[in-house]
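Page 47, continued from p. 46.
Same chain as before, 349 aa.
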Amino acid sequence: MILTEKIKILFKIGNILEHLGEQKDWPGFDCGLNQSEYENLAELVERVHVYNGWFTADSVRQAFLGISEWLKEDHLADWVANYSIKDNAKPKRVAIIMAGNIPLVGFHDFLSVYLSGNIAVVKLSSDDKHLFPALLKTMSLFDDKISDWVEVYDGKLGDFEAVIATGSDNSAQYFESYFGKYPHIIRKNRNSIALLTGEETDEELKELGKDIFTFYGLGCRNVTQLWIPENFELDRFFGAIYDNNPIINHNKYANNYDYNKAVYLMNQEEILDNGFLLLKEDKTIHSPLGMLHYVRYKEISEAKQFFDEKQEHIQAIVGKDYIPFGKAQCPSLTDYADGVDTMKFLTEL
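Result:
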């Protein structure tokens, strides 16, 4: 199967995901699905939270819209044009150990393996084992040989020649010992940071709420630490993000928020609280769920020096001269996790 054909199939999948993400009714046979096939996917969006309480319909739709942006025909063509991909090259079997913190978080790895001309040997996370098979089933309607390019395992992996594994710092140690003899990409914990100068508009601060709360703060691109000028009024920040307060109605989020609040109060540690988000002054990049760490700086150079020193722990930075506010969860195809060019790795195997 040649690269251009794969791109056309992915473009069709992207259109379907965009419609589902925007909660549109079946668009007709032109989308490539009959009404029943389309509505089965729409029903899965609503039902998948039964298997993972974090995967609300809104979160799944957000993931679908992000992926649909990747799958624009021109975006895919421009991306792969940067690499040497031969249609007749002998494919390698590449194991993908998918994480399950947010819906379809491993899709970019699959996309990279599929378009690089290799075979994806996918190990699903137990937290996300329904969405990817559903998309694969949909792809099979456009390509009856998709099973030649993708194998999905719920248990032990089949044979493989290279590995892409995503997990925590602890699981990364296991991955290193188990997969170290193969060509590999092994990802660890990372978090994201926002840098405020004090000159942000109320609208920009409101957009920052998306970077903090989308996917309930569970993604590596979620902002977990805020750097602010020494004289910055946090009440302004609290006011701007207030529209996100319904998040506290999510049971799992509320449980984390309540637990962390109780722990810090019992330890008599100073925290700020607006009823759905805790703020604690702390230089640790990673913050517990339901909490945001913040750091006050005298000179902006202090923040930039910190970012340089901690770059291996930082996934993304939001702010002036960095990622625009509200766009942390909108990575492009070339915004590789951990800064490692997945496609370059795959095309040079």
